[in-house]
Amino acid sequence: MGILPWRQSSVLKKAWRYYQQQNWLAAQQLAQQLLEKSPQPEAYYLLGLTAEQLQQPLHSRRAYEQAIALDAWYAPAHYRLAVVLHDCLKQPAAALPHYQRALEVKPDWVEAHSNLGNAYLDLGNVDAAIACYQKALSLNPDLPTTLYNLGLCLQSQGKLTEASACYEQSLYLEPGVAEVHNNLGSLYLELKNYDGAVAQFEAALAANPELLLAHYNLGYALHLQGNLRAARTRYDEVLLRDNKHQQALLQLGQLCLSEEDFTAAIGYYQRCLSLDPLNGAAHAGLATALLETADPQTALKHFQQAVHLTPTAVEAHLNYAFVLLSLGHFKGGWQEYEWRWQQPDGGLRQYPQPRWQGQSLHGKTLFVYSEQGLGDCIQFVRYLPLLVPHAQKIIFAAYPPLLRLCETIPGIEVVSSESPPPEFDYHTPLLSVPQCLGISKERFPKFSPYFELPPAPPQAIFSVAKPRLGLVWASRSKTRTTAKRSCPIEECLPLLGTLEVQWYSLQKERSPAEADILRQTGVIDCQPYMADFLDTARLIQQLDGVVSVDTAVAHLAAALGKPTWILLPFVADWRWFWHRCDSPWYPSAHLIRQPQRNDWSGAIAQLYPILFARYATVE
After folding, report:
1. How far apart are CA 567 and CA 141, in angstroms?
2. Sign of torsion over alpha carbons 283, 288, 294, 297
3. pLDDT digit string (tens) for 552-566?
């Protein structure tokens, strides 16, 4: 490079003074004049800096490249060229070798380490980015932006504790940075610390009220917190600022679903689809809302779109399965129902033996195990006797409350679901059996009672001259449909005192207040006589009929062939289909549906004249 002549050195110093005075054009002109006489890396470097200030990234790139051509180890030109390539020209891959050369010359260059980390992060190489940020922080721990970027990397790797520490230290060094508060809030959401998340999003908005993402995230945190009114207000605020914000529209739709405002939910999902017809989540949400308004055919079309657009969305596949099954499209419904095993708590058992999927069972032992609820098991064990002639042995693992009841099914061996199974050749979950058998509307086996109960021992409580009816008013299962399937016992009072019948409570679990109502209305409480479902079945044997909401007892009574009136919510479970008052599963069942949502009084009003006509009234 040599020593510059005095006059050239003086001109370069003058150009630098112009640059420091922010007189970019004068600095640029002097640098160009100097280069015309004697090309030198320092002048090209200054020319590149002035071009950057004049927002001429291509000129600055060319100047830095010419500086490097004259001196391949001129670190400042490598560094600034990397910055221009990365930040201005969006070429992080091209920037990497220049950051690296700058660091070869100056290994302790903190900014170069940090910016090299940014380039790696933009390229998706998170591990390399972390190494760069950690090196920069080892040289200078007081770098709030670098700490923030390191937090982003660690959060993306699920290292939430370490990421949180980075965000918090960044805020300690530079308080009130909205983006850092926002990301710390997002981290708290992942930890399900909703109170902490709300506080961080509020801090982000205090620092920058225009940060739209923080408005949305605050709404989402309030939504998860259960503060639906405040969440709605925040989502509305997002839409005021951006009326095409799809996530806010989706969340408002979901919020309306949870509040059973299905008309409003439909409107939000339709707005979202008008912006993006290929939004799978919006199709799934719209289908759910339509289903709840008793429009299964239109819901089916949107579920089809949802599973096509989001083929790994487990809930969309399951809901699609339920609609198909409810409409009697069994082949597709059984197939989609296999998606239940993709749920976090799916419960598909793993054995070294192969899963049975319809293969020949000649000379083989098939192990079938319980799944889903007690009612599901009672309904679908009907298919096990059909398998008996085709296999050497059928073994069924029953839930303990169903163990003795299932032992009355002829031809099968019954074990507890809590015990290791005996030796077998194939295995299958119970509710996959219909698909393997090809059960459809056209191939629907004729019903016959499949529990062969021993004679019931006489019970003194049944020594009455009047007809005897059992009653179950509530489900005690732990599912999301439990509440809507349960009818307050107070709604049943019109039935309990005006019919010439003796009522028997088959409710296994009831509150003290419900027990008081039973005593006051003369209902005989059978709870002390029901240790398991075989005991319940023997009680039902001695009844003339059963009135029940959609519970395992309803399945049991109908499976025994007893007249059974099943009270159903407005949108019932798939197995009861749509608008039917009978059931192909159970010929003795009579379906009583709510005329409108949550209208148990309306359902009881339908049932009352049916029972009135069947049983004499009190004089």
Report:
1. 67
2. positive
3. 999 999 999 999 999
